[in-house]
## 1
Amino acid sequence: MPSQLMDAKKQEVVSENGSEQTRSRKQYSPRTDIFESHDQLLLLADMPGVKQEGIDITLEQNVLTIRGKVETPNFPGYSLAYTEYGVGDFERVFALSNEIDRDGIQATVKNGVLKLILPKSKASLPRKINVQTE
Amino acid sequence: MLLRRFAENDLFSSLKDMQRIQNQLDRLLSASASSGSLEFPPTNVWTSEEGAIVRSEIPGIEPERVDISLVNNTLTIRGSRGEEVLKEGQSCHRQERESGHFTRTLQLPFNVNSDRVEARFCNGVLEITLPRAEAEKPRKISVVTE
């Protein structure tokens, strides 16, 4: 079976060593698309309910971590009658293979989707070498 | 289906065929697992005497492309989410985000005051407030002592 088989449900974050979270809230792994072109990586992550200020992106060495805080909705006088999705924060860690130009990273969020543009550093771009005839 | 007679020296190619069938089965199984197990968009519902609040997670959709309709006590949410199209020279490493059309129908346990229905879309979450029709609100009956 394909290992990347995704359930239609939100994926809860499972830590690598199987240890339990010490946080009280649930954490979910955002569904992500990653596209690569010759000069950049484009990453799109579904993070519904995350505001612009709730997003935290870190790049350490070549480990990229994206986090998104979600506020639990509270409707006074109402009680939760039916539920299909859990509410919690988002977190996902990616290991990047290419050297990334840290200063050129652009992050935007729109309608609950985080868009990250990670330009490759000049040094890591493939160089074309012209062959000259003598 | 392929029913092919194979010679003894054809073992490798039949192994390849088996591999191919295996892959096709995997694809079939994973397709049915992802489309059949849960409806899209996932929805939570809160209720009170006043009515109901419906919240659906639909990230990446433009609010104009969501169509909400209410007939009697049946709420229907329709829409579509565009697929990211690969540009020239791009390659795809991972594609987990779903795309396409969706229709979601919810049956509410009461009639709705359709004039006061409100829908908001914020950060990829659709929130619909559905107040109960006045005539159907539970009435408190006070007991009078004689």
## 2
Amino acid sequence: MANSESEDFESADEEVVKVYAGGSPTHRPTSLGAEEMSLPKPSSTKIPPTPSSATPAAAISSSKSFNPESLGAKPKLLQKSKSKSHSKHRNHRDTLELAGSPPMSTSNLNNQEESQRRRPGKLGVKIPPTNILPSEIASENNKFPGTTKATWRENVSETPTENQDSHNSIQPLLDKLASLDVVDVSGEVSASLLHNSEVDKNTWSSWSSWMMSGASSVTSHVSQSLSTVSSAIESGLGAVDPEEMAKLTVQAVCGLDSKEEVPYESDHTSSSFNVMGNVLKFVESTGGMIVSSGLNTLESLGKKTMDVLQEGDPGLRKKCAMFFREPDKPNLSQVLKEARVRSEIEDKARAKAKQEAQIHFEMLFDDYKGMVHLEAFEMLSNTCQLKLEEKLRILSGTPLVEFQRILIQIREQCDIQEDEDEDEEDYDRGSVEVVERELTTIMHNLMVPISHSKLIRVCEDADAWLATMRCAPDEDSQNENDDWIDEDDVTDDVDPKCKLQDIHQEAIRSLAKFTAAAVEHFHKTAQLVLLKEEHNTQLECQSVVMMTSVICSRISSVAARFSELLSATANLIDSALVDHNDVNLHITNIFFEASNSGSYIQDASLLFIPVIQLGAVQ
Amino acid sequence: MVDPIFDYQFRLILIGDSTVGKSSLLKYFTDGKFAELSDPTVGVDFFARLIEVNDGVRIKLQLWDTAGQEKFRSITKSYYRNSVGALLVFDITNRSSFEHIPRWMAEAKRHIEPHRPVFALVGCKLDLVQNNAKPREIPEEEAAQFAQTHSIPYIETSARTGHGVEVAFRSVTQEVYDRILSGEYSVEDGWDGIKTGFSRPGGIDFSLEEAEPARTSCC
């Protein structure tokens, strides 16, 4: 296959030469000579330093083309090549290939194809026309034939179907146009060649032109590779794959090499030129290397920077966030603080309301089931009363009088003695010991199977609380002698109030709890008395009176002790910090609730009367 | 301590033979605890718990735990009157306790009159049957059949595991509340079966507003 292709190349070359020669007779010998030089070395390697294969077309264009229009003609050529795609025979295609890339043709055909495929890619990143210097254009022209063919060839191989439909109908016309275009281009070329013919005669001028082209190719390559790399970097933004980068660099160097050969070929007649060429080549390659290595460094720097940025990003973000929040911070915390203070105030208000509700005697009494027991006791008593009334209805005459006498007697026994006991009450009678002793006696007398331990436990709890609170003021008084009051005015202001409130609250709670327990005890006792088979009315009445007396004494005692504690605590605290009206109010309230409590007990004892009466008459 | 804020207070009474587990049932319902040993109730004891019905209305249940002992029967009768609901409690491992249920029911009906109380049949000591500690004497179907004939719910409970306890009280509470909404029950003077909560501002007005039109439409 390689052989056949190379044969094709020869004939194709001739054709191309003819085309160009037709346009520019003056150049024909030079180009032919170039062609001859290239042809005998089909097997020679494409190593850059060897002054080998250069296309005649390339040689021609390199020597002639300062034509700015050539760039403008490029798209035209591309279009043309597209339009030609199917009508052109293979021979012509190959000709163009050969003409475009002689170095490749001499070496591996696969390589050739590869490089050709690559070339359009390179064209893709070419510097925009505005940036191109005339000198660069010359070098651009060098590539012209090759690039044109490559593009065309690619279009043929890659998009045959795409073009087929649209172009088949106008194929003949396009073919004609294409050929005309080629002629046009060659005409242009010939014009420029004519312009350069004088220069050509002079070796110096050719030298200078060669120098120009060489220098320009270097510049263009540098700028090309720069733009390639920069565009790649730009597009990749630091994420450029190192392999891709290397490829690009190699490509650039390859391109450099291939163009590098142009000056050699055109000036192969002079050995000094060869030397110069070598030197230049070296300079170019070195420059390319420097550029590429520089670019690599740049790239690695960029990558590194990106890495560092990416690595440090979370921390950086945090820092940024911190820095940005810094001015807001006091505001936010202040807002939170305010909100907290507000909620604290609200909580306090709510707690106070709740506390007030809790220290409400009736509510506490209800919670300790005192109220419901009293209610139930009332129901029981009412039932007994109804039964008594039933009995009264049945009775008449002497039994009725006797019955009524008994009922009245019991009522009197319960009432009068109670009042007497109230007057006798003294402080000692309220102590737990006395209460327990008396209750035990009462229960024993009543002979009812119920324990009064609950009542005693409540008493003991209250006494224990009072005992702990009595110790506390002593500590406070000791503290008061020190100078801490001056330091902690605020806490001192809050503390005694809380303490007084606590005492008041506990007093009410104790009273309610004890009263509830007492009412429950009354209720249970009444139930059991009612169920008794045998009744000792006198004893029952005495027991109820005693019980009421003991419990009322206890209530008074508790109230007195709590009030005492309250005033003592208030006196110990700096008078400036305590509202004595409050203290008095608390004490009054305690006594008020104590009397309230006593009235509940008296109610309970009165409820007992029908129970005893019923028992007496059964 | 019961939260003082509630919309209604319902008074429910637990009746049934002694040792069927009325007090244990209430202890679990109010304290979440089970007492292995408990003294027999003297006359009547009281428990309270706050419960919410379906629409979020808070109900304080005042629970009257009556003595099941026969000797207290004459006394406990006194306590029926002001109850709006009655839980008929029996022991599923004790047939006689179940057989006394109609008696308890009739007694409750008679004493709660003119009000029609909400009943629920509660079978206790389910855990004993499940543990095979004691044989079941009342099949679930039998009790359910009895409940169905009286159009009352039947719930099997265990105060030890808590199984069904909440459901039992909740069903009664919901039924009472539904009857309030339907207008059958209302807050009345001289009857403490249903009371309005005294701690919520405007609670009484609200309840009266709700109860009043219903009553008028009823009559």
